């Protein structure tokens, strides 16, 4: 027999393309059938945890979650299945949520190091909001938080309160002027309140974080405001979905921050699918460039204005001063770099602007639909405003009904309705063995409106309930809008006093009503960050949603007849 006619022994033939394709395909099919169909149904340790039927094998409950109003599916599931619920993510990935204070305490506070924010969430947050408190964990986070805490001390907030008033007065004047220009001024005017709340809170946060006057209330073309606006527009559904898919590529988040990427962004933008990526790179570059310039001028300023009582109280100035003090004491100290400092301030800008604007818009909406609560608030704030249209921190804090209104609004319609954590080790939570790698949803809106705590009217807006709290109320876990623990919102006190200062001026000057009869408002599922880990691949999924009003919240605003002009 010639060598060419030897029978095939089989070893070489395994590497033929069609056999390789069969093996790979077979393995993929096995993985698919096992991971997506069999595992969650028959093998998962979570298979007996109550929850809705497993749903679509490919998408799980993803579509239900993103198509409905934020956190409403979770609320319905909690009503049907109780305080521990299993849901399905994409491709058979299981998710859990817990409502009991003990479980939340374990995940968010006691064992917080074992339940960090998922990595992809941190990557995207880092890109958009800077690598700072939102992205670090463990010792790095502890150190950073320690460095940032003085900027959010009550003492500093008291000093900052005055910075709110220029933008607030600007807003009041604009609204008065526009109402006056109407054909029938007495009938008032419809304002897109979310848009105006966005402007006033951007002006305030830029002033308090950077000591920088954007004045986007009067100047919508301000460079920082325009760049920020562009960045926010990218957070809407289709744009975000594209961005998440692009940013999920390995190295994409770092690459998009690079000078090379900025210079060549127009090339990338030529691809239709990449246009939002080009805008992202562009707006981030511009925001960072402005921030660096501000830092540079502040660092130069320090040499001439070192005295704490006369110097600026904005967060960046505080950080620059703290760094200088550290370096003066020990020139070899490991001080924060310029890039790190810019990142911290950007974090505050990103985390503090839209959230506060959303909280204010929902409060005005709820008051517009509850004329009696609005009247009572006006009765409380008007004498304060007439005595001093710039009330200080303590005066604002002492207003009881205002406190009830703000607490109740943030409870019923929390600006951040949910967030996520990842179990980094297998551990029991509330009697459930949670496997390592499970994504845990923290459904803030469900926790805030849990009937077991708040009673049958838990989902309704009744500010008076804060005057007589229910017996099951837990001060840490029953109103979870800022969560708690080491990752709890560092800007909580600032956000509340800012909201209150804006409300005092608005309610003392104007009456708010729905824009048209039968108006219904929907919190959009405006996904701020989105992704889920599935083995080594990322899939779009819900991470942190800011529940902003879908339609910019039109409200009819009329002037309040005033006895004493202010
Ligand atoms: C009504 C307004 C606000 C609401 C409802 C809110 C809510 C939240 C929530 C729920 C978290 C936790 C997110 C998570 O762990 O996944 C958080 C974290 C954070 N917030 Fe706020 N926030 C508001 C305003 C602000 C303001 C004004 C600032 C700063 C100026 C701010 C800065 C931050 C920062 C830096 C974090 C990360 C904290 C950490 O991980 O150490 N927030 N916020």
In words, what does this structure look like?
The structure is a single chain. The chain is an alpha+beta fold. It is 51% helix and 10% strand. The chain contains 23 helices and 11 strands. The chain has helices at residues 17-43, 62-67, 72-81, 101-110, 119-129, 138-148, 154-160, 165-180, 193-210, 223-233, 237-247, 252-256, 259-263, 265-269, 275-302, 315-329, 338-368, 371-387, 393-397, 400-412, 444-448, 451-454, 492-509, and strands at 84-88, 94-98, 189-192, 419-422, 427-429, 432-434, 439-442, 510-514, 527-534, 537-545, 554-559. The strands form 4 sheets. A 4-stranded mixed beta sheet has the order 1-2-7-4. It has a 3-stranded antiparallel beta sheet with strand order 3-11-8. A hairpin with a 2-residue loop joins β9 (527-534) and β10 (537-545). α10 packs antiparallel against α15, α17 (338-368) crosses α20 and α18 packs across α23. Bound molecules: protoporphyrin IX containing FE (HEM). It is found in: Membrane. Pfam families: p450.
